[in-house]
Structures
1.
Amino acid sequence: MYTYRFITSSQSETEELGEKFSAYLEPGTVVAMYGDLGAGKTAFVRGVLRGMGYDCTVSSPTFAIVNEYRGGRLDLAHFDMYRISSEDELYGTGFYDYLDGTMTVFMEWSENVPFAVDEDAVKVRIGHGDGDIRSIEIDFPKELSF
Amino acid sequence: MIILGVDSSSAAGSAAVSRDGELLYEAYANEGLTHSQTLLVRCDEALRAAGIRPGDVDVFAVTSGPGSFTGLRIGMGLVKGMAFATGARCAGVSTFLALAEPLRDSGRDILTVLDARQKRAYCSAYRSVNGELTKVMDECVLSFTELNDICGKTGLTAPLVVGDISMEVSSFVDGAEYAGDDLRYVHAGYVCEAASVMADRGLLFSAEELRPFYLQLSQAERNRIQRDQEEN
């Protein structure tokens, strides 16, 4: 696993990073995301979706738990684990049914579900800097060049 | 007695029709399509091929769990809907029992295992004696490394292992034997067979009473703690 560090200075730069990153994703890739409220997790996913050819509104599925996007380069399931605290609850969202290798899965608030993050999961950690500055760390099994 | 059996507890899905214990038709596929689009089509196919009208079905049977959360809800919803419409009775067949059913006449111990992720198995066990299956291990969740010990304490002898992770698990249990590729997934014909036995014993429900059995980890862990206490 390689670790890459990026600094972005605005929400749109975080989206652009997600857009570039999306080219490296495959069906079955699970991406565990970490970062506080307002860090830019959803902005990153919005960029990923744009990179896959989706042209639609993207918001955090805080209450729906999962939003599905189908018809782009890859099918993507966008989870928000903010309200999930146990393995039983996670099972009751149908989460494990999304791990059949056909979809790319993004999980915001992976802090809440350590039991669901496999060792080989891709990780995206977003940290707050001054103002709109963000540090974004990506653990990825292959080489990224952007 | 005519039974329509349905299974969507895992990635594979199937529907079958039996009359008086004889399998008339079974439609099985593991093609990766979602059950919500294919399961009703498969029921229709099985009924048409067997020349049975939905209103003639006496018992609607479905695997009630454990298994995929979405899959169980689709199967359960479908069977409840059909039974509600016709007024027929329902049978909720444990996924473990449906997996063990093909070995009803084997005269062997049968260990049934389903993937609980992170090197854990949902398990149960049955003993086949004179064509009867008796449950000898309550449903629980065990790590692969605990399996051998618990199977030993349960008194299982050279069990045949069935279920989606049966190949992986058989190497963890002394004397265990992988029962083969055919017995990794449920086939609806065996849901009919198990339901037929349940009907004889009066273990049927109305559409309203039928319930899924998710065997969530918390429940499985409580079962295990209770068993450990009983042993000590």
Note: The interface with chain B takes residues 86-88, 91-94, 96-97, 100, 102, 115 of chain A (CB under 8 Å).
2.
Amino acid sequence: MSDVTVAAKRQGPSWLILPGIVWMALFMVVPIAMICYVSFWTQTTFNISSTPTLASWKQFFSSDTYTGALWTTVRIWLIVLATTFIIGYPTALFVGLFVKSKTLSTVLLVVCVIPFWTSFLIRVLAWRPMLGKEGAINIILLKLHIISQPIEVLLFTELSVIIGMSQIYCVFMVGPIAFMLGRIDRNIIEAARDLGAGFGRIFWKIIFPLSLPGVVVGAIFVSVMVLGEFATSGALSGRKVNLLGNIIVTQVGSLKWAMASVTGVILTVFMGMVIAGFLRIVDLKQEL
Amino acid sequence: MESRVLKPMLAVYVVAFILFLYGPFFVLWILSFQQGPDGGPQFPITEWSTYWYRQIFGLTPPSRIAPLPVGEALVRSLILAFMTMVTSTVLGVMSAQAFRRKFRGSGFVFYLIVLGMMVPGVLTGLGTSLLANNVFEITRHWYTTAFATHVAYTFPFAFLVMLAILNRFDSSVEEAAWSLGVSPWKTFRKVTFPLIFPGVLSAMLFAFTLSFDEFPRSLFAAGGTEDQTLPLAIYGTFSVEIHPNIFAFGVLTTLFSFALLSVYGILMGLSVRRARKLAMQEEIA
């Protein structure tokens, strides 16, 4: 055996990976396989038995409640993806490209992260006194005489869910985009400017394409989190907006495990398609 | 040049963005000082008071509003976060060590682990509770099933942090130790571990905070009320009427996170300083 392989063996014997593989297989792969399996089980009033049936699948696709939840999930996901991108990109542009001092950009990123030190559920709840009929936004708008009647659609509607999710998840867009923008070689931009390109042209031809991997990573983060959501939609819509996640929670609450599993499988498949789609746009392994 | 116009405009935008991020928190902080026990969770503030803070610590006379059931839940959450932190950091260091050389299927294993931070908690939670109920026929608890799903979620973060640290690691110091006949385990303990310690701290911080705040996995994988973790206790108040005590509690947990991060910052600063000191001693010698 050559010295190199001996050194490599000592550095990291490959059995060290085994506990990690076993843990992930046992507590992630097997549970998801179990969801797929149980989605074909027979549901009785309070129990499930392993007799295979397609009943729950048929029920899902023939009920407006369930297919409606699927479309609501898709709609909210697309809207939140758009809002987090629109809200986040300018911030990322400023932090990643326009701020010259390293300290200031770090400080700005830390400022963006601080809200995450508050519990997720309390962050969601904090929107209620903000958006309500007697909430902060209505009070301020009334004081400024911008409106004469309090806006009531702000809370317990789809809008409040979108506002809440946009705020909670936009930072996941800002981070990756700012990171990619920060890596752009400033000389390229200088060169383009020397050759007479205006900012618009520089942005569309250089800056935006180079930031695209960051956008994709951010979009994956946001998608994964929004698609698995149920707390924000439950707390800010007054149970009016039902996402696939909400369906799973209520079905489990009434011990309808088979239906919860069907919903889980649909969520998994959809999410897989979304992630695969994003990874097609940009080859992440090459970019990072 | 447009940047003379654009930069100030973007700066103003970023200020607005930060206001958007922090707006709800300002409201939360203000309303946590609402008068109690009759003041509601909305404006206007009838009278400034610290009633709701005192209520959390049980310092107020009993009233029609029950105090938050957070005492035991907090202890459970802290223990669970600690267990998760230790387990996922150990797994993370081990796996990242193994990844220092290429092995067959390393690409697949990488994705298997990283998938753990992507799969929504609703799904792993649901699957784990199905397994526990129907295959193993065990009762779900926060320290068994919920703990397993928490680690499956935080271990990928610890793994990625350690991978980033070990990628930049100069292995010549290890080789020096081996050539002097030091055993691999002792080399790891005395040479490698002290050098990667800042990374280990970051991995621990990630795992602890993620587990402490983890909600969907606990909701499905933990059992009944005697298994409530802190996020579950907070969630329980969602369905009933909200009182400012939940806001006061939010402020307190934020302060707790600040304290935790300060401890992390101090430990980090100490380890960096120690590393510098060692380097200087070496130079002198």
Note: Residues 171 and 192 of chain B are 9 Å apart (CA to CA).
3.
Amino acid sequence: MAGGAATGGSSTSDTYAEARTWLLLPAWVTLGILVLAPVTMMLIYSFLTKEFRGGVIWEFSLSAYDQFFFDRGLFGDDPPRIEWTYIQIFWRSIWQAGAATLLSLVIGFPTAYFIATRAPAQRTFWLFLVTIPYWVNLLIRTVSMKFLLRDQGPLNEALLGIGIISEPLSIVNTNVAVQLGLFYSYLPFMVLPIYAAVERYNFTLSEAAADLYASRWTVLRRILLPSVKPGIIAGCILVFVPSMGSFLAPDLLGGAKNFMIGSLIEEQFKGNAGNWPFGAAASMILLTLVLIILLIFARQQSKAES
Amino acid sequence: MKKLMTTTAAALALTAGMAAAEGKLVVYHWFEYIPQEVLDKFREQHDVEVVMDTYDSNEALLASLKAGAIGTYDVAVPGDYMVQIMAGEGLLDTIKDGELANKGNILPQWADPSFDPGRAHSIPYQWGSTSFAVNRDVFDGDINTTDILFNPPADLSGKINMLDSQGEVMAMAALHMGIPQCSTDRDQLKALNDMLQEAKVHWASFNSDTAKEVLVSGDAAVGQIYDGFAAKAREEGANTEYAFPTQGYIVWMDNVVLLKDAPNRDNALKFMDFLLEPENIAAVTNYARYVSGVDGVAPFLDPALATQPESNPPATAGEGVFIQVCDQATQEVYDQIWTNLKK
């Protein structure tokens, strides 16, 4: 990506051609220290032997991956069967994150479209409104969400008040609460990229399509959506990926009754189990999964472009 | 602007430098467990700057120290079983004879505990119990039984918050079933696994940090909780009663330990001596609503504590037991049961 930007810049980039290595060095060092080193460490740890009560013994072992994929019973001496526990936890996380992403898209797309179609002077104001809740810490927002959704909270009081329901809805400690929490946590990550894409969209195209007797639905489906697709894909990735590893919303809103990937990994380092190699292995599997999903998205996008 | 900032930074550094005239003390402590006045008093008495970080479980403390934080902190406040584990892991320094002037203030029953023979590494901080509290507006039957948690009456089903802590849930479950905490009997372990799976159906959530808040807000009608937190919940308006099950309940003691490679070892010892003075540790008790292990605190205590129901088990109460430390093979089975419970 950095290379593409540099070659695109013609004469200006030639001016700095000699210094290029040096100018890029800070970026490479930062990436190396903050991304490459931790991931390499994790990869190595996932192949080490677990030390009782946390820590690792520097001996090669596949037992972390074995534990992930094979079930050997409560006492570890049954013949190995396929372990569904962790696959189930991963599937649950993917499903929750997917639902939150869909919800963000359904609410985020019209919001972004609305903002982008305001007069330029007003757009800043609307964008400002979208970001206001995010000046508050994520933990506090998640706890506030819990207060809103509680059995005796404002949402239930209001619904009871206008007579839509006769019994308070139990939302807290359910999957719905987790999805709402994730949706609320990451909504701006959906709105902002779509906004950027819609803002760049040339609305005369819609007009031209309408002149050629395209219905509004056809304009949306065949003209607008393909044009802003990169923004939608970016928004979906930005909501889906952090939702998958999130543990605040599942813990606080979901009641921590069922592990999500994030809480499962946290438990291996901070919990009683103290199984660092397994935590590292689960992280590596999560990372691989996310990379595969990103690759699929990226391939789709390049196909769409070509 | 930049110059102004530099000046401010220099001024701050100067004040900090003055405050640290006699050095520093770095404390690693539980959240919400020591009143600021006590820390301030120590700072003034000894002219020592006190820095404190907090953790939310014994396991988090161990994980952090093993991940490289050892050598950063002078003292920490692990629970009974964690003192034993930390000593076994070589994370604790030994307090030599005569290094603590007030060691004699420790009550005889806490002077030689099983988890730290001869108090080689630790002094008592606070002790109390872990059981559960029940909202009396929701349920008015007998609550002094572990059935409330593991086989609850219909009124309470689906309204139970458990501590998100393997040790406390497993120990309580062992008391409920009348089996040892570190059982190696396969039938008992299978039965424990099955019992927890069935009990989970009745539970609303696992949460330690908000164990008190869910009782006060009414989100939970039953909450597994520490006695001091239960007392605070009651004082904050929850109509809750703390249970002492006939099957038994968990007793714990938190202890101030001297960490290995403490950067300010002398100040750490001063701090321990300070916390062994009845007046100071009584101030902690008045705040945290637990019980100290120091002799002579009575005149300094809040009179309400003497009659606090959470600290006065009824005659029918079962035995209070410490959480036990299991060996690796046994612990791995319990870890598996916990994962099964939360999968």
Note: The CA atoms of residues 215 and 221 of chain B lie 6 Å apart.
